[in-house]
Amino acid sequence: TTQQKQDILAQSDIPEQKIQVIPHFIEPSTLPEQERKNQFVYLGRFSKEKRIDHIVKAFKLFKAKDYETKLKLYGGVSDSQEDELKDLISKEGLSEDVDIESFTNHPQEVFRESRASILASTHEGFGLSMMESINEGCPVLAYDIRYGPNEIIEAGENGYLIPTGDIEALAQAMERIINHPLKHVHTRQSLT
Questions:
Q1: In the chain, how many domains are there?
Q2: At 190, phi and psi to the nearest 5?
Q3: What per-residue confidence (pLDDT) applies to 9?
Q4: DSSP letter for each residue of 123-165
Q5: How many CB atoms lie within 10 A of CB 119?
Q6: Which of 96, 120, 146, 191 has its CB 3.0 to 4.6 Å from that of 54, i.e. a possible disulfide?
Q7: Which range is the signal sequence, renumbered to this chain (predicted)?
Q8: What strands, in cross-sheet order, belong to the sheet with 140-143?
Q9: What are 142's strand-pairing partners?
């Protein structure tokens, strides 16, 4: 990413002309349009740096305003991680509204049927799942972290950037995306 290049230049004496940003590429979706379910989705590994607890806590704040939206969490979990996540969901009173699913071999369909995908990581190498989501017309709500979200998300066009760690702002972005769905969600031209 451009941010990674800037960080490398700031931390080393490598000449700028020796570093190139190689953009990711994604083929346009071929899936047919379909009606979206009233759900948010997280799709990725279940690990501490993904801050799934932030997603659940923000979802709790969002649900406190009487929204009927569901949350689906897709990813591989160890027994201890799954137990921690289930405990948090239960503690927050969300057992009827949050589903934990295993990995899916059909992420495009999951994104295609969801209202928005959510990324609350502490960091990413790039965040290819954001591009996959947007490619299926599913906007992304993501913490503004290194690396990727601010090079993929155009606020109000294909998602929203949220200050990292701001659970309340993430909940507000959930409200915004439900109350004012984004139309014609697509990847930046430089990424297709």
A1: 1
A2: -70, -10
A3: 86
A4: --S--HHHHHHHHTT--EEEE--SSSHHHH--BTTTEEEE-TT
A5: 26
A6: 120
A7: none
A8: 98-101, 70-74, 39-43, 116-119, 140-143, 159-162
A9: 119, 161
Rounded Cα gap, residues 8 and 148, in angstroms: 15
Contact 189, 24 (CB under 8 A): no
29 found inside a domain: no
Instruction: Describe the chain by its helix, strand, coil percentages, rounded to 5.
Output: 40, 15, 45
Look up the domain containing 136 and give its range.
Answer: 37-191
The answer to whether the CB of 125 falls within 8 A of the CB of 18 is: no
The pair of structure tokens assigned to 85 is: 């996540």
The CATH code of the domain that includes 85 is: 3.40.50.2000
DSSP label of 168: H
pTM over 0.85: yes
